[in-house]
Fold:
Amino acid sequence: MFKLSKMIEKLVLSMMLVVMTGVAFAHGERNQEPFLRMKTLHWYDAKWSVENGSTIQVNDEVTLTGKVHFFSSWPEVINGPSTIFLANATPGPVFIRKASYLNEVPMIQSTGAELGHTYEYRVILKARIPGKHHVHPMINVESAGGLVGPGIWITIDGEADDFVYSVTTRTGQVIDNLGSYAVQNVVNWHLFWAAVAVFWLLWWMRRPLLVVRFLKVKEGSWNELITKNDKFLGAFMIVFIIGVLIYANSITKEKYPRTIPLQAGKVDLMSLAVHNDGLGTVKAKQRNNDASVGVISKKAEYFLPGRTVTVEAEITNNSRLPIQLGEFTAANIRFINHDVDFAMKGVDEGYPDELVADKSLGVSDNTPIQPGESRLIKINATDVAWETERLSSLMNDPESSYGALLFFFDSEGNRMISELSGQILPTFVD
Structure:
């Protein structure tokens, strides 16, 4: 009877464990305290590109979209969202995150959010490990951890070995599979340093250890503990290891002459302005010096061989007259649009000639932007001054970002000045 009751007890405990594990596995966000889920992030309009319970194949992509509202009464017991990072919550690396956006701004780096504001998110995932997984959007808050949004079940079918993630680097090099790229090189270096470590251990283990050495320490017999050969080998190892590091660094620089350091900056992000008039949401204008013109940076690249900065920006004319972009100014270098007469008149003769770009300013659409119109334009600023003024080194900065002023002119010659800033990426192929 005693054995039977024990068996029944074990069976009941096992069943409870299975049930509890299943619930926790399915909805990890339920482990968060209620105040975290009610007073931090409110996720809504959440959508997935596949339905709940769908089956996809290894290498298929899934897109998560929706809006997230940062609650005004943020809990005092956790840090505010001054530094956040958009991610995804899954049971391990079963998906890779190909891209993520807040308000269509790439979230490669961290950013900051304002309480009481709403942001639109988009996360693109690629299936990697077969299995049934719960997939959520998630925002990591500095010193507070991950705050998880709603999730759905997605089953990945196929073989994990079939997973391929090919990328093209900024230099144009095509990497067939990032998951296995340079793995052999990593293995070789691990084996090398493991061999060095084993040799060093064996050198000391060839003599009596623990008890004998303990007695020598008590006696103060240091010459017997550390011999001249030990000191010679120690000095040799220091020189040898430093030499190997210098050699490894040199061959790495030779093989990869262009590298970008880890980025330490934060992305500047604008929220969505939520109206209560039933008209939905609209994008708020980027901060600028003149409210007559709204400017939002979409994309920026620096083409090193061509010494060209290319910026895609959305321009909104909030004034009463048509406007044109007349000048792009960054780091004192002026790029003038020769098709705008008012801009050409604004070039002072006393301004240093080397800081006025000879090739002027390239604008994809020079036609006047009408009042109330929003237009996406492409700006090309090309000149050798990017290099002579040592601005090309921005690719080596720990914060790859840019800042500039845009000068607009209306049909009456009035000038409006707006700030333009954002992330910038170097590119080496046209």
The two ends are 82 Å apart (CA to CA). Residues 325 and 341 are 11 Å apart (CA to CA). The chain has eight helices and 25 strands. The chain has three domains: 23-165, 183-255, 285-427.
